[in-house]
Amino acid sequence: MATQKRTVEVALSTTGVDAEGRPQRVPLVIADDGSPVAVEAPPMVEPDLAGEHMLINIGPQHPATHGVLRLVLELDGETVVRCIPHIGYLHCGFEKLGEYRQYNQILPLTDREDYLNAMGNNVGCAMSAERLFGIEITERCKVLRVIACELSRIASHLVWVGTTCIDIGAFTPFLWAFQQREYIYDLIERWVGARLTPTITRVGGLAADIPDGWMTDLRHFTKEFPKTVDEIDKMLTKNGIWVGRTIGLGVMTPEEATNWGLSGPMLRASGVAYDVRKDFPYYDYETYDFDVPVGTNGDVYDRYLVRMEELRQSIRILEQAANRLPDGPINVDDPRVILPNKSKATSEMESMIHHFKLVMEGPRPPLGEAYVAMESPKGEKGYYMVSDGTSKPVRWRIRPPSFVNLAAIPKMVEGHLLSDVIAINASIDIVMGEIDR
Amino acid sequence: MSDGFEIQYAGSALGNAAPAPVTPRNVPNRGGEQNPSAAALRQQFGDAIERVDVVWGVTNVYVRPERALDIVRWLHDDSSQRYDYLSDVTAVEYRDLEAPIEVVWHLRSLPFRRELRLKAQLPKDKPLEVASVWSIYKGADWLERECFDMFGIRFIGHPDLRRILMWEQYREGFPLRKDFPLRGRFSRAEQLRQALAANPEARYSMEELSIADAFEDLPTDMRKRLKGGERTGE
Question: Which domain range does residue B48 map to?
Answer without folding.
Answer: 7-16+26-164
